[in-house]
Design goal:
Strand order of the largest sheet: 5-13-10-6-9
Shape: globular
CATH class of the largest domain: Alpha Beta
Distance between the termini: 56 Å
Radius of gyration: 20 Å
CATH architecture of the largest domain: 2-Layer Sandwich
Number of helices: 7
Number of domains: 2
Strand content: 25-35%
Helix content: 25-40%
Mean pLDDT: 94
Largest sheet: 5 strands, mixed
Number of strands: 13
Structural class: alpha/beta
Order of helices and strands: HHEEEEHHEHEHEEHEEEEE
Amino acid sequence: MYLSPERFALANQAVSETFAQCSIVWQSIPHWDTGDPGQIRVPDGKYNFPGFIALTMKQKKFLVSLAQANGPTPDALLTEVMAVAKVLARKFDNAILPQLYYNAHWLLKTDDTAPNLLNQLIKARAHVENGGYRAPSCLITNTEGLTHLSQFYGGDSILDSLLTAGHINALHRTSKLAGNGKHTRIVVLGRRRRIPQGAAPEASPGEEPVDVAISVAPSLEIDGETYLGKIQLTARIRYALRITDDRGLVRIREP
């Protein structure tokens, strides 16, 4: 045994908790367990011309020493594991968030001024509400977009006013959404049920326009010993993004 069952359970718990704390997708999009770790396809959830989606794997290999693995306290091991889980969460987000943006049903353009941003967010709200998603929406933007959403107009920040007008109760910033990050990129995700900020894991996935199927939850596997005398482990997740109704997505961009 490279790790005791107790130590391995602690490490797995650290991966799961750190991933949940670091991933935008995990916090903003409901997910569901397929119940089969070996599953390779899931239904795409579309009511018109239903099909199937292949699950994909994201992983991050890393090495730990025997001293880290079997020290008197798990602190050194957990520090390494949490750092790796953070990287895994970023890889997961970077794979999914651009898909949300590019698969949005409707494109709106903005010039980044306060009045125009307000108009476009209201149009985005109307679009998702007309599609049946009348609960408060989730907004995901890049750093440039957040800068303009937070600008001052008439001496006050416009952010709260924009979120209220757009009927948005969850806001997330990412470094990678679309393009090179030098221009505003926003995706508005409509919702059928009210989901507070960061509470998507508790939400029902079948009712929302987007969900994530999970066959292997964020966790560790022990690969074995390397020629360097260290232990190789892999943090992994196997998933499929399901956009069941693209009418629940709107993207906004500054040309």
